[in-house]
């Protein structure tokens, strides 16, 4: 089982997705586990405040390190070999190879920032791996965490129904079709490519490969 630990101010923003469909079933089967740690519950600020103005000026607020580190420490505890992920625009680009590698871990910690980000000392203290899910900026780290969990979970044995669903060489092409063979829509007919109806497996695989290129 892979246990995903998410430090986040807004667990409610991603929990509906992570408890539904394939990921939800994987949790029910105890193939994966998801736990949340809200830094507001760990801060020593008497008012529960976790964000501050950035040093050096600039827009927005930055999540202070104390609450984030204490939440992370609660997640880590005495566990060994925890993989720590710190979302950052200058981090390593998340891809399928990374997902497959991470699926071998028992515990993965995600530091999900918000607002203008997390105090950089959190990443340094935790010795976390800086990761980016794409060349764009989101309002928080919750969606990246959910994205990574979804991609990683695919490689956990038992999560997907069939082994061939996992093998990249057998993954469907970007174009997929199902019944009816001929779709009529607004007086036009749209047919399934003939090669997919041929039963010629070699030609079908060749067609799929071309579509993936």
Output the structural class.
Answer: alpha/beta
Ends apart, CA distance between termini: 34 Å
Strand runs, count: 9
CATH architecture of the largest domain: 3-Layer(aba) Sandwich
Would you identify the regions where 5 or more consecutive residues have pLDDT less than 50?
A: none
Looking at how many chains there are and whether they match, the oligomeric state comes to single chain
Shape: elongated
Q: Helicity, in percent?
A: 25-40%
Please, what is the average pLDDT? 91
**Number of helical segments?**
8
Report the portion of residues in β strands: 15-25%
Q: Write the CATH fold name of the largest domain.
A: Alpha/beta knot
Major sheet summary line: 5 strands, parallel
Order of helices and strands: EHHEEEHEHEHEHEEHH
How large, in whole angstroms, is the Cα Rg?
22 Å
Broad CATH class of the largest domain: Alpha Beta
Strand order in the largest sheet: 2-1-6-5-7
Number of domains: 2
CATH superfamily of the largest domain: SPOUT methyltransferase, trefoil knot domain
Care to give the gist of this entry?
This protein is of the alpha/beta class.
Please describe what this structure looks like:
The protein has 213 residues and is of the alpha/beta class. It folds into 2 domains: 2-153, 3-Layer(aba) Sandwich (Alpha/beta knot); 172-212. Helix content is 31%, strand content 21%. It is built from 8 helices and 9 strands. A 5-stranded parallel sheet has the order 2-1-6-5-7. A two-stranded antiparallel sheet has the order 3-4. Helix 4 (96-102) packs across helix 6. The longest helix is centred in the first third of the chain and has 12 residues, at 65-76. It is elongated, with a radius of gyration of 22 Å. The two termini are 34 Å apart.
């Amino acid at each position: 089982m892979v246990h995903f630990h998410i430090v986040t101010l807004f667990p409610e923003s991603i929990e509906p997705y992570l408890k539904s469909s394939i990921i939800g079933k994987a949790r029910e089967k105890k193939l994966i586990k998801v736990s949340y740690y809200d830094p507001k519950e760990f801060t020593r600020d008497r008012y529960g405040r976790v964000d501050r103005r950035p040093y050096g000026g600039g827009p927005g607020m930055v999540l202070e390190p104390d609450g984030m580190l204490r939440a992370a420490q609660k997640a880590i505890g005495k566990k060994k070999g925890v993989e720590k992920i710190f979302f950052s625009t200058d981090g390593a680009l998340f891809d399928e190879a990374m997902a497959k590698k991470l699926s071998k871990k028992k515990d993965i910690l995600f530091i999900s920032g918000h607002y203008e980000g997390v105090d950089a000392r959190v990443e340094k203290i935790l010795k976390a791996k800086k990761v980016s899910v794409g060349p764009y900026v989101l309002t928080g780290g919750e969606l990246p965490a959910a994205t990574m969990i979804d991609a990683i979970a695919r490689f956990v044995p038992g999560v997907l129904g069939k082994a061939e669903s996992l093998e990249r060489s057998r993954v469907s092409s970007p174009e997929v079709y199902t019944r009816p063979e001929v779709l009529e829509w607004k007086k036009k007919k749209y047919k399934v490519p003939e090669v997919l109806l041929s039963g010629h497996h070699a030609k079908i695989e060749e067609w799929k490969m071309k579509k993936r290129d």
